[in-house]
Structures are given as structure tokens and as C-alpha cells.
Design a protein that fits this description.
This protein is of the alpha/beta class. The chain has helices at 8-15, 20-27, 44-51, 78-81, 94-99, 116-124, 138-150, 191-194, 198-217, 238-247, 286-289; strands at residues 33-37, 56-59, 66-70, 85-87, 106-109, 130-135, 156-160, 171-177, 219-229, 251-254, 268-269, 272-273, 282-284, 294-301. It is built from eleven helices and 14 strands.
């Protein structure tokens, strides 16, 4: 994969947000391989015994089922086909951990495909309760169905529609892992930087505000939403959360306490000042923990 030619406007934009040299340097390095043990089919101790001598496992601090690993062709291992583990990014494991669904709850995964977080939540719920796994395109339903079947998930139903159409349902917890500009995923694909355009972030922010508002209207009193993106654009992260707090007085942002290094959230961007409450969110730069970039907010109703 050839190194990208960094756009000058992109460099200028991010120089004001982080250590640009560290950010660009880590963005040129491949992601460490990571797996999450699927406890629906295999507990952590048994998994370690099964892959001993084939995979070197190092614990991911913020997810007890997650491990950094080394080894070629991990996806070709029999344990992968059997659903004993899921190949999932270390930062991607954070939103379900923050949402913390428990047994017998009713949960909505509004943007579910390909199913990494859905299957993680199903395992956390011991395959009890109900997860509604939604996505908006038939092509995206295929990997979702395949992955959940492989992992032995049985507490989940699928819906195929725009997330903004949900109404008249009361969920205990909702995950809005929103579609975004994906700046945190440069290490996966340099095409992310090739197609980057600030106007796209503004467009995505409108969609994200709509999804988050719909989710809040479908949440029980004292219920919890986790809003997450794999982008580092302030307009899609702190900007969306700040707007949401201003327009939903019953929404309360909760501080996220995880064993993870993270950057300071953005207070002001492009002439706009955001709510001081956004400092309770997680802004994770790729150079912080040698992962993808991610943003996570935890919101309670009431």
C-alpha cells in the first residue's frame, strides 16, 4: 500500500488539533492485529489453550476479551471459522464496553453491519434479552447475518431501514455507531485521505444529528446511548454532541472512565465554541494507543 500524498489543507486542519508529526507517522504504519474472544462459544481460558503456540496474545487493557496478537493468516484459523473469536479493531471494542448492556435488556444497534459490536454486545448479554440490529442497505445485511450466525448469536433480530425511521419503541440501551468520514481509519486504507473533503464532514454531521435525535426519542427514561464514530473531525464528534445537548435538555453526558490513553476533546473549532461538557467524551488519536482513531460519548436520558 503506497504512502499517501498528504493534502496541505488536511495537514493545516489537524496541526491545530494534535501533534501532527506523531499523527502522520502512525498513520503510515499498519494496524496491529487484534481479536476478541467470543464468549458465547468459548471462554477466555479455553481460547488461550486452543491457540497456544500459534498466536501470541497480549491483553487489551480496556476489554477483557480483547487481545493484540501476532500471527499470519489469523482469519484462516479453524477457530475463526468456528466463531471462537472475532477479528475486531481494539478501538472498535470500546463503544460496547462503555454501553455495558446486561442480561435481558432490550438494545438497539442502529448502524450494525458488519456485526462486530452487535456480536460483542450479544456476548455481554449472554445471548439473552433482545438486540435489534439495523442497517440501511441490503448489501450490508449479508456480512451482518453471516458474522452473527458464525458467532452463535441468537438474541438478535435484523431490520433493514434508515435509522431515522425508528419510533414508538422504548429501548434500555442504544448504540449509534454512526456513519462518518472515517479519518480514524487511515491506517486501514489510504483512500480515506484521498477522498477527504471538509464539506463531506458537514454533510455527515447532519445525518449524525438526525440519528442521535431519533435514538434519544426511542430511549427509555434513565436509559443510555453511546454515540461513536471512527472519525476525528470535530464537526462530527464534539460538534454533534454539543448540538445534541443544546437541543435535548433531558440529555446528560456522562464521563467515560476507561484504562486508555486519550487526547483532550475539542472545545472550539472553525469559530464555533462547543459545550464544556464534551470533555467527558473520549477522543482517541491513533498515536495514543497504537490503534485506530475513535470518538465515544455516553449519554443518559433523564
Amino acid at each position: 500500500m503506497a504512502a499517501p500524498e498528504w493534502k496541505q489543507k488536511f495537514v493545516e486542519r489537524y496541526s491545530g488539533l494534535t501533534d501532527i508529526d506523531a499523527f502522520l507517522d502512525i498513520s503510515l504504519k499498519p494496524l496491529r492485529k487484534t481479536v476478541r474472544v467470543n464468549t458465547i462459544k468459548c471462554d477466555i481460558k479455553d481460547f488461550k489453550e486452543k491457540v497456544e503456540g500459534r498466536l501470541n496474545l497480549n491483553q487489551i487493557p480496556w476489554c477483557k476479551e480483547g487481545f493484540f496478537t501476532e500471527g499470519a493468516a489469523i482469519g484462516n484459523l479453524p477457530e475463526h471459522f468456528l466463531g471462537y473469536f472475532y477479528m475486531q479493531g481494539a478501538a472498535s471494542m470500546i463503544p460496547p464496553v462503555v454501553l455495558s448492556p446486561t442480561e435481558n435488556e432490550m438494545v438497539l444497534d442502529m448502524c450494525a453491519s458488519p456485526g462486530s459490536k452487535t456480536s460483542q454486545m450479544a456476548a455481554m448479554m449472554n445471548n439473552t434479552g433482545l438486540i435489534v440490529a439495523n442497517d440501511n442497505a441490503m448489501l450490508r445485511m449479508k456480512p451482518l447475518g453471516f458474522n452473527l450466525q458464525r458467532c452463535g448469536v441468537s438474541n438478535t433480530i435484523f431490520t433493514l431501514m434508515e435509522g431515522r425511521w425508528f419510533k414508538d419503541i422504548a429501548f434500555d440501551r442504544i448504540l449509534v455507531d454512526a456513519p462518518c468520514s472515517g479519518i480514524g481509519t487511515i491506517r486501514k486504507s489510504f483512500r480515506t485521505i484521498e477522498i477527504w473533503n471538509p464539506s463531506f464532514s458537514r454533510q455527515m454531521a447532519g445525518i449524525q444529528r438526525q440519528l442521535l435525535s431519533t435514538a434519544f426519542n426511542c430511549l427509555k427514561e434513565d436509559g443510555t446511548i453511546v454515540y461513536s464514530t471512527c472519525t476525528l473531525e470535530p464537526e462530527e464528534d464534539e460538534g454533534v454532541v454539543s448540538w445534541f445537548l443544546e437541543n435535548h435538555p433531558k440529555a446528560k453526558l456522562e464521563k467515560i472512565n476507561l484504562d486508555i490513553k486519550h487526547g483532550k476533546c475539542v472545545d472550539e473549532f472553525n469559530g464555533k465554541t462547543y459545550s464544556s461538557e464534551v470533555q467527558k467524551c473520549l477522543r482517541i488519536w491513533p498515536q495514543d494507543n497504537d490503534t485506530e482513531g475513535f470518538f465515544v460519548a455516553k449519554i443518559r436520558k433523564g
